[in-house]
Predict the structure.
Amino acid sequence: MRLTKHLLLASTAIALAAAPAFAQDATITIESWRTDDLTVWQDKIIPAFEAANPGIKVVFSPTAPTEYNAALNAKLEGGSAGDIITCRPFDASLELYNKGHLASLNDLPGMDGFSPVAKAAWSTDDQATTFCVPMGAVIHGFFYNKEAFEAVGATVPATVDEFFAVLDKFKADGTYIPLAMGTNDQWEAATMGYNNIGPNYWKGEEGRLALIAGTQKLTDEGWVAPYRQLARWKDYLGDGFEAQTYSDSQNLFTLGRAAIYPTGSWEIAGFEANAAFPMGVFPPPVQNAGDTCYISDHTDIGIGMNAKSANPDAARTFLSWVASAEFGTIFANALPGFFSLSDTPVKMEDPLAQEFVSWRDKCESSIRSTYAILSRGTPNLENETWNASVQVIKGAETPEAAGARLQAGLESWYKPAGM
């Protein structure tokens, strides 16, 4: 009896000693829309984390971008989603949190390394709760073919008039399509067009927040003027731009057939891999020399925890590591053009990435105008802005009519707080 008791106590002690190590062993799965990042996660990010956390294995399981939202919602509703959820900015992720799918990360170690502005895209409207770790931002601007510029004697434009003078020079020369952008996919006309040049007109955050507050309208000059510039782009987009897809535009530029490409920093890695000519980038030209410049420095991607994760401790360990300077350095250099949102400076090696991020020191940063609050209803302002941008570029709608249509749609469901 005594022997049995001693054996029982011994086995219990062994089990207790082994319990922490056993409990730490876990495999966590990351849901993401970034299918193009798969090798970066598998070859760089995950090995670095697993080396520092040998009890946790990580599986990166992306879904095609166009299918991600629907697939993720179905998994979350069905209880089959992964432990880690890659978060789109603002309303899409806020809805997941409000439905109880994302856990609060207020007490996550490392979250104090991000400013309120960095966390705003993944926080409740009152900023009381943050539910995703900010991972990266993208900066809008223009890529240009340095060889093409040299061939026609063009210099990098700083003002809108200089920008159109350069476009005229390329149009007259005839060797290159002056501006590579199509309207087939719609979103690029708004994301790479309207929200690229727009902050210089509505003064970035000043205008965006005023629109949310109801003290500005989409019929105001600051919101209509970018459409006037877009309407002028039509003459420089080349034949058949109406049927030109996003990938068509990318190919036209990387094959050396176009001189300028309006887009953003997210193109860096792909363009550097595919273009055989030297490239440069420039920020959206201001209206007049000496004007304050504004850039769309958009909080693009975050990462959170499934509130029903079977491995919450392991998931939190991973998310805390994502908040670290180690992750920020790996991420920013493995994916040049996706810039860390941490307060801790990250040293980047890519020259184009360095140029993009240097604009933060010269210009005022803002985010895409439709992403926070203003696209929660029907008609959806983000999608309507896609359509309006396309119609204006095609000449099917005037800038003034586009602004009036968008404002009427917004007013049909949105009432600013206190008004």
Observations:
- The chain has two domains: 2-135+300-347, 139-297+365-411.
- The radius of gyration is 24 Å.
